[in-house]
């Protein structure tokens, strides 16, 4: 039976854009760089979800939670 290890990365939209504009778009370049960086290390994306997180008192910003996995090396 193969064993796996997991890693979770959270990529959030810019706080300044959220503060000044009320909302911002997800940073696709940052998401892509994160996925490519871990992909080169043998990690695979197994799950991802976008959640809203509270920022200060009145603002919310989105965050992408990415779950990676890879086989454990003996």
Overview in brief:
This protein is α+β, with helices and mostly antiparallel strands and 74 residues long. The protein has helices at 15-21, 28-40, and strands spanning 4-12, 44-55, 59-71.
What does this structure look like?
With 74 residues, the chain is of the alpha+beta class. It has one domain (4-71). It contains two helices and three strands; from the N terminus they run βααββ. It has a three-stranded antiparallel sheet. The longest helix is centred in the middle third of the chain and has 13 residues, at 28-40. The mean pLDDT is 82.
| Helix content, binned percent | 25-40%
Beta-strand residue fraction: over 45%
Order of helices and strands: EHHEE
> Can you count the helices?
2
Distance between the termini: 12 Å
Q: Mean of residue pLDDT? A: 82
Strands of the widest sheet, in order across it, are: 1-3-2
Question: Any key phrases for this structure?
Answer:
alpha+beta; three-stranded antiparallel β-sheet; elongated
């Amino acid at each position: 039976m193969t064993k796996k290890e997991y890693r979770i990365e959270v990529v959030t939209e810019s706080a300044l854009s959220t503060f000044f504009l009320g909302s911002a778009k997800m940073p696709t370049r940052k998401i892509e760089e994160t996925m490519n960086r871990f992909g080169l290390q043998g990690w695979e994306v197994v799950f991802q979800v976008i959640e809203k997180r509270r920022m200060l008192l009145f603002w919310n910003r989105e965050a992408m939670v990415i779950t990676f996995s890879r086989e454990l090396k003996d």
